[in-house]
Amino acid sequence: MMDMECSLKFLTSICMILFLLGSYAAYESVRLVDAREDNEKHYVTLQVDASNATGRPIPETLFGIFFEEINHAGAGGLWAELVSNRGFEAGGQIIPSSIWPWSIIGDESTISVVTDRSSCFERNKIALRMEVLCNSSGCPSEGVGVYNPGYWGMNIEEGKKYKVTLYVRSTGDIDVSVSLTSSNGSLTLASEQIIALASEVSKWTKKEVLLEANGTDDGARLQLTTTKNGSIWLDQVSAMPVDTYKGHGFRNDLFQMMVDLKPRFIRFPGGCYVEGAWLSNAFHWKETVGAWEERPGHFGDVWNYWTDDGLGHFEFFQLAEDLGAAPIWVFNSGNSHNNQVETASIMPFVQEALDGIEFARGDANSTWGSVRAAMGHPKPFGLKYVAVGNEDCGKKYYKGNYLEFYNAIKKAYPDIKIISNCDGSSQPLDHPADYYDFHVYTPAKALFSMSHMFDNTSRDGPKAFVSEYAARGKPDANKGNLLAALGEAGFLLGLEKNSDVVGMVSYAPLFLNTNDRRWLPDAIVFNSSHLYGTPSYWVQQFFTESSGATLLSSTMEGNSSYVEASAISFQSNGSDYIQIKAVNFANVTVELKVKMTGLDSKVSAKKKKVLTSASVMDENSFSNPEMIAPQETILVMPEGNLTFVLAPYSFASLDLLKES
Ligand code: AHR
Predict the structure, then answer these.
(1) Which residues form the Alpha-L-arabinofuranosidase C-terminal domain (predicted)?
(2) Which of 176, 236, 324, 521 is the most exposed place for a label (fewest CB within 10 A)?
(3) In the chain, what is the straight-line distance between the N-terminal and C-terminal CA atoms, in Å?
């Protein structure tokens, strides 16, 4: 007893010390970023050469997005499927297996539920068997059966329609209620019966019902219940909202958040998700195509959750097409986090990559192009970029494997641009590549100071693909605050100015379902019914005019170590604009004077957009989703005096219209 008390006291003291150390670290970090703090106004001048003749074209594909299946970005996120573990495969192949998150309605005296391997689908044999055993007085009036809560509750909205599809088999007649209900089943939001004779369902039969909700609940569940004794097998139970983007299965609100970033490319499906902790759990694209019912699903062992792979290889290309973004497919390089394939044995992986490319862009009569065509897209998808692996450069067989992929792909598809995992920013690559992948996660201040990191990169050789960047770390970036976003703004301005050697840029990760946080911070945060953009999301929106624009030569004068700025010219709706973007990464007010030379017409200030907040540590939340979001104002400013005030810790853009 005494010993326990001592240990408790000891533990409490340790915790106190850790707490104090943590608080000091937090204080120190904020103090450091607040180093520039005084009441004086500071002055900087941006000298801009506004003539397009001396400007430099910014790549058409500079700003894009990176979608990884992490934080339930797809399963329980963008992919609108409401049922989780729809094929009962998540519990593994040894039977009887766990059916989580399915649960049983009824007790041992009325129902027994097990899994067996009787499915009609070859690649996913597990099915659910319900023995309904109600005694002579019958089943409870509400029936017995199973329910699925979806991904932490289904968002069911009044007046909307939901298509439920399931496969069923029975030794007798069936009468099954398919219902959407409140989270505890007490309130029915929609219900239909599936009634069939034994002769019809003695073999696996597909059934579909359309449910129209008469109420709203964002924590709803799907119930399959009956009051009839007998054996019923169920498999591949899906509930899809009818209202998804173009009917393509993407959750509308999350899709819109991506559209608003005007992404010029989309990198997918990972990240570490592509690698797997083990190769057996990596993303194998062939397992994710064809009829959804026949996909086996897989356990993503890096982010530790099951996906039914409704969002598969085809759907990623469809997503890219719907976004008007160039697809960038990342495939496994024969490397996972724990095991690797030697170069001597890599050919099956190379063939898998070639087949995956053929699936995307082969004609409808080719072996894999025909699979795509059968899925409803006879026209090839425009795949022009592939990445060989993710963060694998240091691994023993990476370079050997890479060369096999590179040579085979260039031979079959000379126009495809190939992205290497090895960093070419400080020294030339020792192997051929069109781009090299560059990832950076670091505290906000460090990221801000990396805005010049590509200034000295060799102008020859492959360009950088900064496919993952974010200010990260506690308390510095926390769950995604203004400080992190401003660090990123500085970094991005540097990338924009170095877009002769940086070809593509995307933030990571894109999405977070708050019910399963695997990585913080993220750009878009959501649950079943709500969402918001973090300040990092909004910073990206400042760059929507940049891809394909012209970078104007600009220089900063004055004490500007905490100010970064850029100038571009672009066209919109037939008009010519100049845009100045500037970030102030200090707790001081800065007056920025813009001096322009080389103008061939008059300019008038049109619009100012500002991102800031009362405290640099502020974050958005479900209850205050746009506390930190760009504020737009119409500007009136005389041509000869383009001066604007940068509030402490703020990011601003100024649009100037060139008069014709
Ligand atoms: O973006 C989260 C992870 O960070 C990615 O999966 C990986 O590539 C990187 O380490």
Answers:
(1) 467-650
(2) 324
(3) 87
d(CA 107, CA 67): 42
In the CATH scheme, what is the homologous superfamily, with its name and number, of domain 64-80+245-549?
Glycosidases (3.20.20.80)
270 lines ligand 1 (CB under 6 A): yes
Mutate to test the pocket of ligand 1, among 439, 522, 524 (most ligand atoms within 8 A of CB): 439
Residue 322 scores a pLDDT above 80: yes
What is the pLDDT, as a whole number, of residue 203?
A: 98
Q: How far is the CA of 350 from the centre of ligand 1 (A)?
A: 23
Q: Does ligand 1 lie within 6 Å of residue 150's CB atom?
A: no
Can you read off the two tokens belonging to residue 144?
């017995």
Phi/psi of residue 583, each to 5°? -120, 135
Distance 217 CA to ligand 1 centre (A): 34
Provide mean pLDDT across the span 335-359: 98
Confidence at residue 135, expressed as pLDDT on a 0 to 100 scale: 83
Pocket lining: 468 vs ligand 1, CB cutoff 6 Å: yes
CA 606 and chain centroid, separation: 33
Q: Residue of the nearest CA to atom 5 in ligand 1?
A: 271
Q: Please tell me what DSSP assigns to residue 619.
A: B
Per-residue pLDDT tens over the stretch 349-372: 999 999 999 999 999 999 999 999
* CA–CA–CA angle 499, 502, 508 (5° rounding): 115
Distance of CA 271 from the midpoint of ligand 1 (Å): 5
The C-alpha atoms of residue 187 and residue 178 are separated, in whole angstroms, by 14
**Residue to substitute in 66, 273, 519 for testing ligand 1 pocket (most ligand atoms within 8 angstroms of CB):** 519
Hunting for tokens 């540097």 — which residue is that? Answer: 494
C-alpha 272 to ligand 1 mean position (Å): 6
CA of 548 from ligand 1 middle (Å) equals: 28
**pLDDT over 70 percentage in the chain:** 94
Instruction: State the sign of the Cα–Cα–Cα–Cα dihedral 304, 308, 310, 316.
Output: positive
Token code pair at residue 483: 């400080």
Task: Report the residue among 281, 336, 390 best suited for mutation to probe ligand 1: largest number of ligand atoms under 8 A from its CB.
Answer: 390
Residue with the smallest CA separation from ligand 1 atom 7 is 271
| Spatial separation of the C-alpha atoms in residues 219 and 529, rounded to whole Å | 9
- CATH code 3.20.20.80 region(s) in the chain: 64-80+245-549
Q: What is the pLDDT of residues 499-551, one digit of tens each?
A: 999 999 999 999 999 999 999 999 999 999 999 999 999 999 999 999 999 99
Ligand 1 mean position, distance from CA 121 (Å): 34
359: enclosing H helix or E strand: helix 347-361
Q: Say yes or no to pLDDT of 17 above 60.
A: no
Element (H, E) at 497: helix 482-497
- Tally the residues of the chain: 660
Residues of the chain with CATH 2.60.40.1180: 43-55+552-658
Query: 294 near 122, Cβ under 8 Å?
Result: yes
Phi, psi of 520 (to 5 degrees): -125, 150
Residue whose CA is at the smallest distance from ligand 1 atom 8: 271
The reported pLDDT for the residue numbered 136 is 79
Residue recorded with tokens 């689908």: 121
Residue nearest to atom 3 of ligand 1 (CA): 271
**Going by CATH, does the domain composed of 43-55+552-658 fall within 2.60.40.1180?**
yes
Q: Is the CB of 271 under 6 A from ligand 1?
A: yes
- The residue whose CB lies within 8 Å of the most ligand 1 atoms, and thus the one to mutate among 441, 469, 488, is 441
Ligand 1: distance of its center to the CA of 176 in Å? 44
